[in-house]
Specification:
CATH architecture of the largest domain in chain A: 3-Layer(aba) Sandwich
Shape of chain A: globular
Radius of gyration of chain A: 24 Å
CATH class of the largest domain in chain A: Alpha Beta
Domain Hydrogen maturase F dimerization (chains A, B): 179-277
Number of helices of chain A: 16
Keywords (chains A, B): GTP-binding, Nucleotide-binding
Largest sheet of chain A: 6 strands, mixed
GO molecular function (chains A, B): GTP binding
Strand order of the largest sheet of chain A: 2-3-1-4-5-6
Number of domains of chain A: 3
Structural class of chain A: alpha/beta
CATH superfamily of the largest domain in chain A: P-loop containing nucleotide triphosphate hydrolases
CATH topology of the largest domain in chain A: Rossmann fold
Domain Hydrogen maturase F tetramerization (chains A, B): 281-398
Distance between the termini of chain A: 42 Å
Oligomer: homodimer
Helix content of chain A: 25-40%
GO cellular component, one term (chains A, B): cytoplasm
Strand content of chain A: 15-25%
Largest interface: A-B, 35 and 35 residues
Order of helices and strands of chain A: EHEEHEHEHEHEHEHEHEHHEHEEHEHHHH
Amino acid sequence: MSLNATPRGQRLHIALFGRRNAGKSSLINAITNQEVAIVSGIPGTTTDPVAKAMELLPLGPVMIIDTAGLDDTGELGALRVQKTLEVLNKTDLALLVVDPGRGIGEYERDVVNRAREQKVPVLGVINKIDLYPEAVNRPWQQELDVPFVAVSALTRRGINELKMAVVKAAPRDWALPTIVGDLIEPGDLVMLVIPIDKAAPRGRLILPQQQVIRDVLENDAVAVMVKERELKHALASMAVKPKLVVTDASAYLKAVADTPPDVLFTSFSILFARYKGDLPTLVAGARAVKDLKPGDKILIAEACTHHPIQDDIGRVKIPRWLRQAVGGELVFDVASGGSTLPENLRDYKLIVHCGACMLNRREMLYRIMQAQEAGVPVVNYGVLMAHIHGVLKRALSPFPQALAILEEEQVEFEDELALLSRYREHR
Amino acid sequence: MSLNATPRGQRLHIALFGRRNAGKSSLINAITNQEVAIVSGIPGTTTDPVAKAMELLPLGPVMIIDTAGLDDTGELGALRVQKTLEVLNKTDLALLVVDPGRGIGEYERDVVNRAREQKVPVLGVINKIDLYPEAVNRPWQQELDVPFVAVSALTRRGINELKMAVVKAAPRDWALPTIVGDLIEPGDLVMLVIPIDKAAPRGRLILPQQQVIRDVLENDAVAVMVKERELKHALASMAVKPKLVVTDASAYLKAVADTPPDVLFTSFSILFARYKGDLPTLVAGARAVKDLKPGDKILIAEACTHHPIQDDIGRVKIPRWLRQAVGGELVFDVASGGSTLPENLRDYKLIVHCGACMLNRREMLYRIMQAQEAGVPVVNYGVLMAHIHGVLKRALSPFPQALAILEEEQVEFEDELALLSRYREHR
C-alpha cells in the first residue's frame, strides 16, 4: 500500500503558519531531519502552500503543509483568508511559528482566531531561541492563549519537546494507515491463530482480532482464522503458503512450532505495539532487560485500574520472570491510571507498560516519548511476553528495523530459549 | 455436533412441577407431539426426575425435566426440598401443572416460593379444561401471583398459547446451541464473504460476522474471510473445497456466481433467520408472496425505530418489489418498536419483519408465533431479499426442511430468476 494513498485522518496533517522568515522551512527540516524545504534567510523563498507526505519518527506518517505565501506579506485580504481557511479545512494541528524578534501581532491573532473557528488546535512555537535566549521566559501562552514550545531549529534544542507537544495535540482517533497492509500484497493469505478460551467474550471476537481481519480485507487479501490446534491442518488445506501468520500471544509456542520457517510470523500484541506505539523503542526496552541488576527499580505502568488479566501479567508473571532473569530481588512500583506517566521516571531502570488496550495511539506514543525523554528504556507487555516466551526474534520477522535493534545486541534465539526455560521453571 | 452435547443455557431447560396425576406426562406429550413419557391415570407412574432432550417446534432444542416423585405424595420433608432445589438449580422455566379438580394448595405455594427464591420464572398451567371447562374463568393468577395458561393435554386446546407463554418466559440470552455447527465437521473450511463498504463500522466487524467466525472456530473448523471480489481467487488458493460459503446479502449475485454448485451456500441473514427465529415458517412466508392480490394489506414490522438502512429495505425496496410482483397497488402499514406485534394481525395478508438485529431469539420467535396464531404468513427481510434476488433456493441448500417448504409449492429457480428480473427492471 502506497503511503501517499493513505487517507486523511490516518496521516496526521500538520500546517505550519508563521510570518515570512519566522523559520517555518528550517523548522520542518529540524523535526523531519530531511532537507525537504528550501531553507533561506530571504523572505518569501517558499511561495505556495505545499503539502508534503513524510515520516516523522516516532510519530509515523504525517503530512506537513507549509503555508508560505499566506503570511503577512503574501496574499492580501479576502484571498488570503480564503486560502487560510482551505488549509485549516484539511489540518489536524496548526503550528504557529513565532519569531521572538518580532513578537505577536495581528497576523498571529488572526491565525489563532480562524483556527479556533475551524476547531483546529494551535500549538505556538517560539523559534530562534539560539538568537533570543531570553525569549524562553516571556509569557507567550498568556499573550495568545495557546500552549507554546520554545525551540531552535538551528541547534535542535526543544525539538523533542515540540514533537511530544504535537503528539499531545493530535486528534483522539489518530491512527496509522494500516495494521498489516504494508506486510501483504492483494490476494495474499493471512493466517490468524485465535484460541477460544474462557477469557474470550461469548460469541464475539475481541477488538484487535476484528481490526486485523478488517485490515486484511481492506487490503484485498484473505484472512484465514483458526484455533491453534487446527493450524497445522489449516496450513495443509491451503494450495498456497500464507504470507503471514499472526497468533494470539497465548498460543505462541504451538503457533511457532507449526508455522513454516519461510512464512512471516508475528502476534497480535506485536502488531499493536507497532500500531499504537513505536516498535523499535519497545524492542530496545526488551533488550535492556539484560542490563538490569539486583536492587534496580522497575515501573509497571498500567493505563487503567480495572483489568484483572493484565494485572496478573504485569503484577505476577512479569515481575517473577524479571527477578529470575536478573537472579535477585528487584523493586517494583505500579502506576495505574493517569493520563501520562508519573514525573519521577528517572528513578527507574526499566518501564514495563501494559498492552494499552484502553489507550489510543496519541496517548501511548506520548508515554513512550516521555520515557525516551527521561532516558529510561520502555517495553510493553506484548513485546516482553514474546521475549519471555523465546519468540521475540521470530515474531519480529516482518519488521526488519525492530529486528535489527534486537540483533545488534546479539540476543540470539538460543539466548531467548534459555531465558524461556528459566521462566518456565519458576512460573 | 450432537444435540445432546448442547451446553445448558442454549438448550432451554423446562421443569414440570405438579401434583401426582395432574397430567404432567400427558402435557409433555402434547407440547412435544412425542410419546416420551409413560402416560397413565394411575398416580405415581413416573417416579424420578428425568431430564429428556427434545426438539420442540418451533422453539428448537429443549430439555424437559419431569419432577414426578417430588409431588405431594412422593418424597417427604427435607429430601423433597433438597431434590426440588436441585431441579430448580438447572431450570430456566418452571411449569406448574394444576389439576382444576383439586385447585391450589400447600404444594403449589411451596413450588412457587422455592422457585422465586432461586429466581426461576414460574408459569402456571391449568390442565384438563376438557373435563373442567368452567376452570378457565377462575382467577388463578390472583390466587398464586404467577401467569396462567389453560390447556387440555387431551384435546390440545391452549397448547399453542402455552408454547407462546413458554417463549415469553424464556431467559433473555436463550439461544440455539450453534449457528453453523450442525452444518460442518471439524477441519472443514467455511468461506465468509464480507464486502467492505461505507456502512461497515470502521476497523470493526458487525456482530453477526463475529458470531459466525466464533461458531466456526468453536466447532474446530477454519473460517476464511474474503471480500466478494477476491472470492474466486481465494477458492483457487484452497487445496480443498470449502464445506460452506456464507455471504453478506449485499454480495449475493457475485457470491452465487463464484461458488461451485456442489458447495453449500447461504447468507448471514438466512443463518440468523434460523438462529433467531424459525426458518421454515419464514420461508413459507416468502412463498406466500405469490398469493398476494392488488389491494391486500401488508404489515412491515420493525423491531426498532432507528435503523435508516433497514428502513430503506423495509419502506422502499421491499414495497416497490412486492407491488411489482403483484402487478398492482398494495396497502402497507408500518409497525415500529413495541415488545410484540400489534393486535390486529388478522387484517394483513403478509407480515414482513425486519432482520431483528436488536431482538433476541425469545422476542423474535414470539412474534413469529403471534403471526402463526393469527394465521398470517410471516417473512423477514433476509429471507425475502434472498427471494427477491432469486437466490433463496440456493441459499437454502444447507437446510433441507426449509428447502422442502419452498419446493413443495413449485417455486423453481427459474421462477425466482423471473421475479428477480422484474425486480431489477423497477428498482
